[in-house]
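Troubleshooting log. The previous structure file for this entry was overwritten by mistake, so regenerating from the original sequence record. Sequence copied from the archived sheet and checked twice against the printout by T.R.
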Amino acid sequence: MNKSDLVKMLAKEMDLPMRKAEEIVDMVFRTMSAALVTGSRIEIRGFGSFVIKKYEGYTGRNPKTGEKIEVRTKYLPFFKTGKELRERLNG
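Regenerated output below.
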C-alpha cells in the first residue's frame, strides 16, 4: 500500500472527496513527522510505536577506494509493532 492507495481507501470509506482525503492523510503524516523531529515518541495502540534511535558515528571504509571515511552520528526512525498487530500477523 502506498499513500495514494491510503487516500483512495479513506475517501471511499468516509465518503469524502479525494482532495479532502488527501489533506487528511497529509496532515497526519506532517504531524507524525513533526513529532519525531522534536524527539517525541508516537504510539498507536494496537498498531505500534515510532521512536527515533541514535546511531553513533564510526570510521568506515569506501569499498571502491579503500579510503577511510568518518561516518557521522545519525538519528533514524524505528518502528516497533504492537502486540495486537503482531498477533494478527502470526495467527
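The first strand starts at residue 42 and ends at 44. Archived copy saved in two places this time.
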